Amino acid sequence: MEKKLIRHTLFWAIVLGLLFVGRAFALPCLRVNKYITLPKGTVEGRLDNGLRYIILPNELPRHNIEVRMVMNIGSLQEENDQRGGAHFLEHSAFIGTKHFPKRALIDYFERQGMKFGRDINAFTGFDRTIYWLSLPYHSQDKAVLDTTFLALRDWLCDLTFDDERVKKERGVIVEELRGYQQNDDFYSLKMGQNRYADHIPLGTERDINSIDSDRLKAFYKRWYTPSHATVLVIGQVNVAEIVEKLRKTVGTIPAKADKKPFKQLPMTYAKGAAWMQLSDSMQRESKLELIIPHPTIVEKTLQDAVNKQRMRMLAQCLSERFAADSIRCNVSNDWYLADKDHFVLSFRGASSALLAQQLAAASYECRRLLQRGVGQDELQQLIHTRLVHLLPDTTQQLSADLCDDFIDYITAEDRPLWHPDDVEWVRSQVKMTTSLQLQEYLKSILKAMKRSRLYAYTYVADNANAPLLNAKQADLAWKQGWKRPLESYVYRQKAQPKEETIKLPSCLKQTPTFTNASIENRKKWPELGIEEIQLTNGIKLLVRPTLDEDSTIYLAAVGRGGTADLSPQMQLKVHDAVSYVDMGGLAKVSCDTLLTVMTQQQLSMTVGEDAYWHQLLASAPAKKATALFNLAYEKLCFPGINREDFAETVASELENVGKETLLDRLLAHDSDRLMTNTIDSLVGNVAAGTERLVTKATLQALNIDTITNYYKRLFGNPSGLTIILTGNFDAAHVVPKAIATFAQMQAPQSPLPLNNSPFAAKKQTFFKGFEGGNDHQTVANYVFAGNYTPSLQATLSMKLIRDVLQDRVLKVLRENENIVYSPYVNLYYNGVPQQKYHFVINLSLKDENRQRAEILLQSILKDLKEKPVSTAELDKLKRSFLVTKDKVLTDKAPSEWKTALMSLVKNGESLHDFNDYAACLNGITPAMVQRMISEMLDWNHRMVVFKSQK
């Protein structure tokens, strides 16, 4: 009986134990297959006709809705006689639909303040075509969404294919192709041999010239159906309202049965080794990349996220082992295209023999890791490094950024890992990573390598007699390394220096007494949310609190005075003054101690000087405002001197005087850089005296005391200094501290003289060309330069002229003549002290169209001078300015506010006008614009800088 009881007891103990164990394993297993959480509030669904929608209410930025229509079709779906058709269709969406004939769609959205190319655009890829609209939206503008969804409906089922318009657009696309540059020299190698390589999204010039309306219609009819589309709407929206609007527009498109549904196509590569080599005259050593295509990890479930982290651990493990063994090899693993990642071992060496040796050494290390695994200490270090980077992200995202994440979700089911619960589970699994798991990942990489491997070889062209590497030799080197007898790997843990916490130096802790006597006047600008405080010592404080999540104060101190204000002789005496002084830290704190303190206290700071201005930028957590302000004050007024580092730096520079660096060699042959330098010299962007070469005599004559004295006279002068504070902080608590600290600054006895003479723009016709660019193509810059009287209204008027010009050039040269693809007009201006501007009209076109473009440009300018821009056109452009301002300068944009206010100061624009931005903008009339065009854009004073193969 006793034995029977024991047997029963053991039986139930085992059963209950198994139940508990089962439950213990069930919870993790459930999480393994759990989808990564989508952003809170996401609503997904399908309309009756098969169209999918995703809607997410989001408050950032205000008065904005992002709309995307994602077609899960692209160039892969083209038949052989339709190549380039998917891309051509994308263009066709903007040249005529049922409800928006010709250019009416672009015109409508531009009247809402949107800009074509920025807010209205589209993109074609291998497996997707994306149409996007960034809508300015206020609750009363209900019609904007109705019209937007009507446009989506037209794109899906009611494009018009006017033969003449298609013919014209063909020329535009061909020019786009001519201007496109593939920046990867090994693109054809990495693409492999598959449908992707044969169906590039842009198509070829031959493809575009051969396609016609009938082929476009056939592709459109076959693929543009609701079941292939997803509409994504993110912003200040009501979900139910959006769904109802979609039902009434795109939801009315009849469903279409997909008789021949397509399947996802994998990237495939030929078996064995593929080799490609190129010479490079600019490099001093050769480079070999061993590229291993292997299946990508799509982060769909939590386990997928764990798998991706472990793959990163493998790459990290190999990188650290290679570095420990002095193997010059970088290891990376990144998504390349479709279903493939590229695991890359990138070697560098002075000769092919050295590259082969490193390849063999890397092979040996891979085999050792595969067979011997990772020790516990090494594994824990790998885990620790991963966990440092694996943190939740609960900050509020911009709607446009959320759209990018959702497009990956729509096209590949990839989800961003952000939710704290998800991240915590993934962290728990990463902590349990074993050596065996990393070995399994390496085994899969090596198996993929055996199947297909790509060698990208770049050798030094100058060494013509040196033997070159080839695929056979590279494979042989790998095999030789694999066969070497294995020795145990000795992991040497990186010594983690224990950094002693340094007490905050007394000069950074001091709390000056606030007194109203320091304030001359203060004023609030309610429309901007800015307080302006003028101190009696000449400093102006501009305070604009924002609501970013990290509670950081951003400080910018901006003052007049720079290198161009000095005589040529003085420029040489204080050459690179800010850099030399910066290495000295503070007068009361050494540089090394200061760097440690700043790191521990989360303080950052940088100083700089250009031709006419100097500045200090700094930031710190809001709770450390006292230390931040003291740091800035001490750096402005009491910099330190590090004589030893100064002497070493000058000695190093003396050694390198006259030596040509790799960068020098690259820039000497860079036609784009040569064009930019030429334009800079014409429009006054090169300060007087900077053309003088720094000689050994100049460096030997440098004196750190002279340099420091100059720095203190420049940076320590409060007269005319503007200090800008932005970020998430309590103004009532922080502003008195700032006032008390910076009120201590006193004007130097002998302030530096300032050169406030405006730049004298030359009235000339100028032509200069450089060899470069694509075959049979010219890239031309038409430059118009001059002077203006600084004010916000003058700046806005010039920007309106820029946009009017952009519109005319697009309509005439692109849409009517089809001789350019993407012309653009840029405006550059410097208000104080140079009072100068220059417009640049950039055109990329066939060599034979250069003369035609000149005639058309001259005609455009003549027309604008003779006939004022219409009020309707000007109002449309003004609306875009207002929309842009609202979108950029939000309550959660501290950096943008800082940049805007610095620009305001440097360009002599008033806060009064900025506060009344709309009134200032609306005060600009067609007659004013016409007069300024006549004065600023003189065809007889054009400067043309271009590049061409001719």
TrEMBL record:
Residue ranges constituting the Peptidase M16 N-terminal domain according to the UniProt record: 54-184
Membrane keyword on record: no
Gene Ontology molecular functions: metal ion binding; metallopeptidase activity
Pfam families: Peptidase_M16, Peptidase_M16_C
Domain Peptidase M16 C-terminal: 210-325, 702-880
Domain of life: Bacteria
Keywords: Hydrolase, Metalloprotease, Protease, Zinc
GO biological process, one term: proteolysis
Family membership noted in the UniProt record: Belongs to the peptidase M16 family.
Name the record gives this protein: Protease3
Gene name as annotated: yhjJ
